[in-house]
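User: Second chain of the day. Same drill as before.
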Amino acid sequence: MCPGTTVERRAEILGEKPAFAGTRVPARTLVDYLEAGDRIDDFLEDYPGVTRDQPIALLEPARDALPGDARADR
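Assistant: Same format as last time:
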């Protein structure tokens, strides 16, 4: 695993399905939570081994792919 890696695939962990680095939590689980209407905080509460930075980093490419006028300024 490389430092700063968000998701990794390792044969011995979930048969190489993408998992949050350093955990056995499938990355797909975050998507399932969000599709169900849950918040990232709900996901993190249920999976304390995942850091807040990991799901944010996983979602950043999708956010960055949105046209500028489609992104809400914070």
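The chain is about 40% helix and 5% strand.

User: Great, on to the next one.
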